[in-house]
Amino acid sequence: MSTIQISNVSIDVQETWGTFEGKPLNPVPGDNLLAKSQVAKFSSPDGLVMLAGLNIWPDGQMDFRTIDFIAGPDSYRRLERAGRLEVKSYAGDSYGAYIRALRISGKDYPTLGGVTWRELDNLLGSSAKDFLTSLGATALGTAEEVLGATNRNREFLAIQCPQDDVRSLHAMWGMTRVLAVMKGLGSDLPGALG
Fold this sequence. Notes:
The chain is α+β, with helices and mostly antiparallel strands and about 190 residues long. It contains five helices and eleven strands. A hairpin with a 2-residue loop joins β1 (about 1-5) and β2. α3 (about 130-135) packs antiparallel against α5 (about 165-185).
């Protein structure tokens, strides 16, 4: 197990892959499927304990999502319904994803939206780029630069990492989901939401 510390959020990443039963982002009709999953335990001093991880589905789809919410303030319950991250394979040996964060923006609950490096630096308290690079990220920038995106989301931030070291994906998800909810990204309120 390796431990990643993001501000006051601890992420204990399991070294071995297990399984997760559920449905991929684009489900096919029928029963739940069994995904190969690298799970991590996310915890913080405010009582959060949850499992989340990278899932690889039988049809090749990949996502990062909450697997089990064990305990914590109600504000984190949003992570059970929102915050899934679509992951794709690039260049044969890399995983890539858009970097979006849960933020308060006109609704009573956080929703996923674009985020800037400055906002990520403020959440983390230091350089998010340097931190993610130290955990194995091989490319960081706009989705156009990193993923070759040409759609309307090409200006969103993106990340790439090697398939055999996904710690930077765990850290990015923790930063843009858990830490963003904890610190109330997009609101003027200090501390956790709720």
